[in-house]
TrEMBL record:
This is Amino acid ABC transporter permease. Residues 29-228 form the ABC transmembrane type-1 domain. It comes from Sutterella seckii. It comes from the Bacteria. It is a multi-pass membrane protein. Its main location: membrane. SUPFAM superfamilies: MetI-like. GO terms for molecular function: transmembrane transporter activity.
Length: 244
């Protein structure tokens, strides 16, 4: 009976909007999904560049890329998001002015997007490097023998194969990113965990709020997992990865 009463609170009108609580929390899920997609796109773009340069023959370039990876990978995510939200604006006046003028949710979203994109890029960069290193050494040499320049060999031969090899670890990174978005609540972004917490604080029905949030997280994670499994199946390389 007490359990039914707790769950019934999800159907009650929110004290913060005109929607019921379950819709209020569901709207937070859209912030979570949007942040996941945007941050993963940024992480993939930067991670491919940094990971590729980690295999460059130039020691200085490799050193810079390694420093980038160690910097973002070894500082806790919650510390990084505080730095981006509270410290960086003080060092970049125009960015601080923009944060003051723009809608707070938009400023929080952009901050979380940058922070989580860079944080995840350091992990993806290592996976890209490992993918390139796992390829036969004769592959880039064969490309050069066919007249490809070093850049062409990487862009047209090495990277396409390496990216297909690292789809499984990218699946794990994408699912980790879904969970990491909850850290954005610390700077006020109204994402899924933040909305569930607000319901709990206003109604004292934390069980119903976090149960609904948990269900939504599971659904999002399962969708991401199935999407990446489809990508893995379509990008399989005969002789390297056996299709399931």
């Amino acid at each position: 009976m007490a359990l039914n009463f707790s769950l019934d609170s999800l159907l009650e009108q929110s004290l913060l909007t005109e929607d019921p609580w379950w819709v209020y929390i569901l709207n937070g899920a859209w912030w979570t999904i949007g942040l996941t997609i945007a941050a993963f796109a940024l992480a993939l773009f930067i991670g491919i560049i940094v990971g590729t340069l980690r295999t460059a023959p130039n020691k200085f370039i490799r050193g810079v890329c390694e420093a980038w990876i160690e910097l973002f990978r070894n500082i806790p995510l919650i510390v990084q998001i505080f730095i981006w939200y509270f410290v960086v604006p003080e060092l970049v006046p125009w960015y601080k002015d923009w944060l003051i003028e723009v809608d707070p949710a938009v400023g929080q979203f952009v901050t979380a997007f940058i922070c989580m994109g860079l944080f995840t890029s350091s992990r993806i960069a290592e996976q890209v490097r490992a993918g390139i290193s796992s390829l036969p050494r004769g592959l880039p040499n064969a490309a050069k023998a066919l007249g490809f320049t070093t850049v062409q060999a990487y862009v047209q031969v090495v990277l396409p194969m390496a990216m297909r090899l690292i789809v499984p670890p990218l699946t794990s990174e994408s699912m980790n990113l879904v969970k990491n978005t909850a850290v954005a609540m610390t700077i006020g972004l109204p994402e899924l965990t933040m909305r569930a917490n607000e319901m709990g604080e206003n109604t004292f029905t934390f069980f119903a709020a976090y149960l609904w949030a948990t269900i939504l997280y599971i659904i999002i994670a399962l969708v991401v997992n199935q999407l990446m499994a489809w990508v893995e199946k379509k990008s399989v390389i005969p002789g390297f990865i056996a299709a399931k």
